[in-house]
Amino acid sequence: MSDSRLRKSYDRLLAIQAQLGDARLGCPSVEAIAALLAREGDEEARLALLDHVMGCAFCQPEFEMLRAAQRASGSQETMDG
Ligand SMILES: [Zn+2]
Fold it and tell me: How many domains is the chain partitioned into structurally?
């Protein structure tokens, strides 16, 4: 998978997100979804967020996208937390 291609689709997602701003009330920010992937923050909050993401037509592709990007960006296995 090429890095520039990933970046392109990510830019596109951000543009879509900007357009859909009003329709996405209640949706977590990209940062929050990224934090979910990074296993940052309170576990209960993360589970609630994951619950939303998996059932949301906007957030789910975003989550998959970020996950793919994270995998592509190297296999850094950090032990923080
Ligand atoms: Zn959502």
Answer: 1
Is 81 inside any structural domain? Answer: no
- Ligand 1 mean position, distance from CA 39 (Å): 18
Start-end of H helices in 1-81: 3-19, 30-37, 43-55, 59-72
Residue 41 domain boundaries: 3-72
- Give the Å distance between the CA of 32 and the centre of ligand 1: 11
Over the stretch 61-70, which tens digit does the pLDDT of each residue have? 999 999 998 8
28 Cα–ligand 1 center, Å: 6
| The pLDDT value given to residue 81 | 47
